[in-house]
Design goal:
The chain is α+β, with helices and mostly antiparallel strands. The protein is elongated, with a radius of gyration of 18 Å. It starts with 6 loop residues before the first helix and ends in a 10-residue tail after the last strand. Helix content is about 15%, strand content about 15%. The protein is built from six helices and six strands, in the order αααββαβαββαβ. Strands 1-2 form a two-stranded antiparallel sheet. The protein has a two-stranded antiparallel ribbon with strand order 3-6.
C-alpha cells in the first residue's frame, strides 16, 4: 500500500514508505495495513515462533528467532484476510531476499561458512579469491528468503531486502 507523503511525515524525516520496509508474514496482501487488526492470531499459530508485533502495528518476521518454513499456518489463522494462504503446494509470493553485510566473518578473513551450510536451496556459495579467503555470494534466483542463513549466522551479518514489485507485464 502506498501512502501519500504528507507534510507531517516530511517534517519528521520519513521520506520512504515505512510499510514497504516491514517484513510482514508470508501471504501479506497488498491492503495488509487496512486489513490487519493486530489480533496476534498469526503469531500464535506460527510453529517457528518468528512472528512478533511490529513497532508500527501488525506482525512482522524476526529471523533472529528462527527461519520460516512457509507452512501457511499464519495465513490459515488470520481472521481478517490480511494474510492469504496459497493453493496447496504453492509457495507464497515472498518478496524478500538475503543480502550479505560487511560484518560477515568471511569478509573479515575468518573462516566461516555457517550460512552456506544452513541454506537448503544452496543459494549461498563461497567463491575462492586469489590470495584471500573465500567470499560469499547469493544466487537471488535460488534464494527463498526463508531466513535460515540469518538465524544461523554467528555475526548476524545477513540482512533482507525487498525485491522490486513486479508488474503483470513482462518487459520486452
Amino acid at each position: 500500500m502506498t501512502h501519500a507523503l504528507d507534510r507531517r511525515r516530511l517534517l519528521r524525516g520519513e521520506l520512504h514508505d515505512r510499510e514497504a520496509a516491514i517484513m510482514r508474514p508470508p501471504g501479506a496482501q497488498p491492503r495488509f495495513p487496512s486489513l490487519c487488526d493486530s489480533c496476534g492470531a498469526c503469531a500464535r499459530a506460527c510453529p517457528e515462533a518468528i512472528i512478533i508485533p511490529s513497532a508500527h502495528g501488525g506482525p512482522q518476521i524476526d529471523f533472529a528467532r528462527g527461519a520460516c518454513t512457509f507452512c501457511g499456518a499464519c495465513a490459515r489463522a488470520c481472521p481478517t484476510g490480511a494474510l492469504a494462504e496459497e493453493p496447496e503446494g504453492a509457495p507464497p509470493p515472498w518478496p524478500w531476499r538475503a543480502r550479505i553485510e560487511p560484518a560477515c566473518l568471511s569478509l573479515q578473513g575468518v573462516a566461516c561458512r555457517a550460512c552456506e551450510d544452513a541454506c537448503e536451496p544452496r543459494a549461498i556459495r563461497f567463491r575462492p579469491q586469489v590470495g584471500g579467503a573465500a567470499k560469499p555470494a547469493i544466487d537471488m534466483n535460488q534464494c527463498t528468503g526463508c531466513g535460515e542463513c540469518a538465524f544461523t549466522c554467528p555475526a548476524k551479518a545477513i540482512a533482507f531486502e525487498r525485491l522490486p514489485t513486479q508488474s503483470s507485464e513482462t518487459p520486452s
